[in-house]
From TrEMBL:
Record keyword Mitochondrion present: yes
CC terms in the record's Gene Ontology section: mitochondrial large ribosomal subunit
PROSITE patterns per record: RIBOSOMAL_L2 (PS00467)
Provenance organism: Zostera marina
Location within or outside the cell: Mitochondrion
InterPro entries per the UniProt record, alphabetical: Rib_uL2_dom2, Ribosomal_uL2, Ribosomal_uL2_bac/org-type, Ribosomal_uL2_C, Ribosomal_uL2_CS, Ribosomal_uL2_dom3, Translation_prot_SH3-like_sf
Protein name: Putative 50S ribosomal protein L2
Length: 235
């Protein structure tokens, strides 16, 4: 399915695209009369995708769920065109991608935040692909999973500074109160005469240690897709 970018902004995370349905075009071509407005609406429809970086209005992108054999729609190189979506098996090693599926046909689940991208490290003959995630961890994916070439737009979002406390509230963040400022009934660090440091190692309101490498994730919930630990260490 081919699509043309209708409008895109660098600061936006979504791009409006106009898609062209080849199935509807085939049925419309069999008609002898001029297509009506309803038939034209079937040929073209508008939808939204996560905006890739360096994608501009008027550029053509494609969404391909199978092999690229015989694909020639005026694109110089489908494997390097930013915004093209295709299976990982159809891409080159070293390509930066985003909006990666967890399982084939499930939809994009990974690498969707502003300015992020994953890198294809290895394409195996066993139908598996190794991606280096934004965290530095390498994960194994099915080569049939689709991904989009390029990185997500608006990479400067992480440098944004909030001008006032109200902006944090707009984002759904509520004020955080220190435990030492509470009463003993509300927090283990509460109470005491005058200023105190809590009198014990830092804990949560429910008494769980918060520092010192205390393990909080169950061992059975480990990520079996991970090839390396966070930071690139093997293990």
């Amino acid at each position: 399915m081919a699509a043309a970018v209708k409008s895109a902004t660098l600061r936006s995370l979504f791009t409006r695209i106009r898609t062209f349905s080849t199935t509807a075009a085939a049925s419309a071509s069999t008609a002898t009369s001029k297509p009506s407005s309803k038939e034209t609406a079937r040929l073209f429809r508008y939808s939204y995708i996560v905006a890739p970086d360096n994608l501009h209005p008027g550029m053509k992108i494609m969404n391909r769920s199978n092999s690229l054999t015989g694909w020639n729609q005026g694109l110089i190189d489908p494997l390097s065109q930013v915004g093209n979506s295709m299976p990982l098996s159809s891409m080159r090693i070293g390509t930066f991608v985003h909006c990666v599926e967890h399982r084939p046909g499930e939809g994009a689940k990974y690498v969707r935040s502003a300015g992020t991208s994953a890198k294809i490290m290895k394409l195996g003959e066993d139908g598996q692909c190794v991606l280096k995630m934004p965290s530095g961890r390498e994960k194994i994916f099915d080569s049939k999973c689709q991904a989009t070439i390029g990185r997500v737009s608006n990479p400067e979002r992480k440098h944004r500074k909030l001008r006032k406390a109200g902006q944090s509230r707009w984002l759904g963040r509520r004020p955080v109160v220190r435990g030492v400022a509470m009463n003993p009934v509300d927090h283990p660090h509460g109470g005491g005469e005058g200023r105190t440091s809590g009198g014990r190692p830092s804990v949560s309101p429910w008494g769980k240690p918060t520092k010192g490498g205390y393990k909080t994730v169950l061992k059975k919930n480990h990520d079996d897709r991970a090839v390396t630990k966070k930071g690139g260490r093997r293990g």
